[in-house]
From TrEMBL:
Residues 15-63 form the DUF397 domain. This is DUF397 domain-containing protein. It comes from Kistimonas scapharcae.
């Protein structure tokens, strides 16, 4: 794992939907072109790392409603 993602200060906590306890932490390494995602409740889980293309595809799909649960 990149040293960038080993530093807790690089992560920002994001919670959605007003549901307490369902949060992720996100870090963007602009220099390396990577995005790291991790669970804020379980530090034992590894950080998931995505490249710029993967992240952009995910964001586009979210905005298009592809992951909406209804």
């Amino acid at each position: 794992m990149s040293m960038f993602f080993a530093n807790d200060n690089n992560f920002v906590k994001a919670c959605g939907g007003g549901t307490v306890g369902y949060c992720v932490a996100v870090a963007v390494d602009k220099e390396g072109g990577l995005v790291g995602i991790r669970d804020t409740k379980d530090d034992s889980k590894e950080t998931l790392i995505f490249d710029k293309g993967e992240w952009q595809h995910f964001i586009t799909a979210v905005k298009a409603g592809e992951y909406d649960i209804e």
